[in-house]
Amino acid sequence: MELRHHYRCIELSTWKRRAHFGVFGRGDYPYDGVTTTVDVTKLLDACRDNGIRFFNAFLYVVTRAMNEVENFRYRMYEDQVILCDQTDPSFNVLDEPSELFYFAYAEFTPDFPRFDSDVEAAKAVALDNKHLGSNRLDVFYVSRLPWFGFSDIIQPMGLSANDSIPRLVWGRYQKEGERVVMPFSVTSHHGFVDGLHIARLLEKMEELLDRPERWTGAAASM
User: Fold this and answer.
1) Could you tell me whether strands 167-171 and 139-145 are parallel, antiparallel, or unpaired per DSSP bridges?
2) Which residues of 140-177 are buried (b: 16+ CB within 10 A; e: fewer)?
3) What is the DSSP string of the chain?
4) C-alpha distance from residue 141 to each of 1, 7, 12, 186 (Å)
5) Is the pLDDT of residue 26 over 80?
6) Which pLDDT value is given to residue 4?
7) What is the band of 218 on the pLDDT scale with cuts at 50, 70, 90?
8) In terms of DSSP bridges, do strands 179-189 and 31-39 run parallel, antiparallel, or are they unpaired?
9) Which of 44, 31, 42, 38 is CA-nearest to residue 185?
10) How far apart are CA 87 and CA 142, in angstroms?
């Protein structure tokens, strides 16, 4: 597996998660996951009012949050635990004529217009090259299911390969009273991520979703 960004090796003997990693990180299925809903009302309004692609904007939200919560940047690498400086999204892109999907990769930047442009370019490259699979370790996987909502989901994981790459999935959004909500699922390696860290991820996302004008450059919705 390749690493595009810098990383540091964790000294297990002094690592505060050593015992937890030993208990939860070495099982036959060492993963934990949560499926919940997120409120995308304000983000949808900002996207519709300003011609912003919703997928690109929400991908920015989750990517920025994933980078801000350290535990989602831990990986298993050659029998070592490492902490990556940055993690980037690997997301699926549907080729509509063939009804097959391929993988795209976009490097995170806190500059949303640049990230938005890079995501569009990555989609075109994926459809042109028909990428399937990844040799990147400092990524997280993203799937979108815009055709339906869900209340639970099972992710494919490489059980025999120390697979430590987080998976995120979201589905079709729908109205709930005055709000628009969307199903959202996180699956991660329990040696690195506990429920507390998933809660922090969701809190970071909520902060960005609640004030999209702060990072999109769009005017605040009235």
Assistant:
1) parallel
2) bbbbbeeeeeeeebebebeeeebbbbbbbbbbebeeee
3) -B--S-EEE--GGG-TTHHHHHHHSSSSS-EEEEEEEEE-HHHHHHHHHHT--HHHHHHHHHHHHHHHSGGGGEEEETTEEEEES--EEEEEEEETTTTEEEEEE----S-HHHHHHHHHHHHHHHHHHT--S--BSSEEEEEEETT---S-------TTTT----EEEEE--EEETTEEEEEEEEEEETTT--HHHHHHHHHHHHHHHH-THHHH-PPPP-
4) 15, 19, 26, 10
5) no
6) 87
7) low
8) antiparallel
9) 38
10) 12
**188: nearest Cα among 65, 15, 60:** 65
Q: pLDDT value at position 98?
A: 95
- Distances, alpha carbon 169 to alpha carbons 59, 60, 77, 210, 217, in Å: 11, 14, 24, 20, 26
**Are 221 and 49 in contact, with CB atoms under 8 Å apart?**
yes
Question: Over the stretch 103-121, which tens digit does the pLDDT of each residue have?
Answer: 999 999 999 999 999 999 9
Q: Which tokens sit at 91?
A: 């997301």
